[in-house]
Amino acid sequence: MIEVKELTKKFGRKTVLNGVSFTAEKGQITCLIGINGVGKTTIMNAIMALTPINGGEILINGEKIHKHSYEKITFIPDAITMLPQMKISETMQFMADFYDCWNQKRADEILQFFKLREDNRLSELSKGNTAKVNLMLGLAMDVDFLLMDEPFSGIDIFSREQIADVFSSHLVEDRGVLITTHEINDIEHLIDKAVLLNNGIVSKEFNTEEIRENEGKSVVDMMREVYQG
Amino acid sequence: MKVNLNKREPVYVQVVRHFKEQIAAGNYEPGQEIPSRRELANQLKINPNTAQRAYKEMEEQGLIFTEGNNPSRITKDGKVIGTVREELIIQAVDAFITSIRPINIPVDDLVGLIKEKYTEIERNTRGDSNDRS
Question: Is residue B117 part of a domain?
């Protein structure tokens, strides 16, 4: 489980996160929702210890993040961090060289799933296919938790559908997924839990099936209450 | 398999209803093997935990059964299947009455109209299947 407790983060004098608390469980898909600039990416960076925090703590399986945590959790940023002249096969080799938890068998399976060819260069790929390679590089790691920052952002509808298919497949089986998005329509039926951020705090944290069952509301209904209420 | 999902109703409830419809219509036969939870999640593009919940619900209602590690199957209990069929028919009729009631049509006229439309639809679908053959 990822536990974010009373997380506070300031940029200069501006407090972006003002005591954010939520959990993301293993075997579940948790979605961080918020309008742009609300601090979603900052939270992900904080979980990965890529940015210093001003208060609170973050626990992964009950422990503070340390260097071995990177074999348990991986972060997929919203844009690929490999060089454009690299072939897909070279990006995979790069990951294999750096991470013990890289799983080449799974990587090959994901390439097939997305219908990508490993001798293609990144510079030759469409935005949608580049996003799929980016996702593959994270999904192929044998880790307990996957953080995905805006995997649906700025790509065509068919690529979005293919990426959404990942979430109902065995590719995320039994792992914990924490995803940020504002394109909730793509994944409304795929997530277990939604965490709505507003004004530096968590306004609502709920199980999506429970909110449908107990209140007859959709995730978008809940968002409307927070962001337009 | 395709289900148009409503965003304000629990997904597991919609999945259970989908199975009931298939059973009532005879598209799923008694004892027929059904997809695994994972396959179902993938086909319907829903959360695997939700598929799991739907299967648990169907097992409790006696709609499906699982023996050991074998794939789950549709019930062979004719009584359960009959009840499902009855339940769906009543639900559909109730929904129909709710929408027709405000128009205030005498029930005998309505029954006549239903018979007429029903025959028409059956004639058309028979025509379709002739075209295909």
Answer: no
